[in-house]
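Bug #77: duplicate submission created two jobs. Keeping one. Sequence:
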Amino acid sequence: MRSVKLPPLPRRGSLLGFCVGLSMFLAIPNAAVLAADEGAPILPHVARRMAMAQPLRIVAFGSSSTEGIGATAKRYCYPSQLKSILSTKLQVPVEVVNRGVGGDDVDDMMLRLSAVIDDKPDLVIWQTGSNDALRAVPVDHFIADTRDGILRMRSAGIDVMLMEPQLSERLRKTEHPDAFRVALRALGQEMGVPVIRRYDLMQQWLASGQLTYEQMMSGDSLHMTDGGYQHLAQAVADLIISDSAMTPDAGLSERRLVAHGAIP
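Kept job's structure:
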């Protein structure tokens, strides 16, 4: 897998240069996805469990989008729907533990990370960056903590996926609406971690007519609806399956790029 390095971190409060330096990553597919050309599964621990038809344990780690704020019932949050979809597709026992806490930023999540590792999952899906944008958390601090969290989970033998902030009117009105999305994509490039490009996926659902904005987002213009979470769960399930493929076929690289939102 090729190595991609982040630009130098900015001084605290000096975000413009950082965003310019990272903007190139918005148009570049995940380095982890490009590893498909090498024939290796992107999520090796998940791939091993699937190949042996063993139970799969996933922790959905994040804030309110993971907790399910905006859903009409807990069964409609994305982790609950993900469990149902994967159980049907994989025909093995699947457990998805919901570790979403509304309002958490990266500092809050780092305080909970040890408990997530103690769950002993095969995979952690880490949804992050939204509250950091709302609270104007320094991007260099966000990057450093997120990198540390990824390293801690990997050292514990856990596969990691990142989920970027959502398409949202509330986030669009923050001082630097793209900064945390760009930062997560850059970390994915640097560390070979697949990034669920939620922003791009939501744009595609709107452009294709699969959902209207009102069908996708709740009235607060920040959280998703039952329908939005259902589409998200389906996209994440497709990603997990494609990123765990042991023997890629000729079309797998393209399907991975589509699933990650890198191409429409």
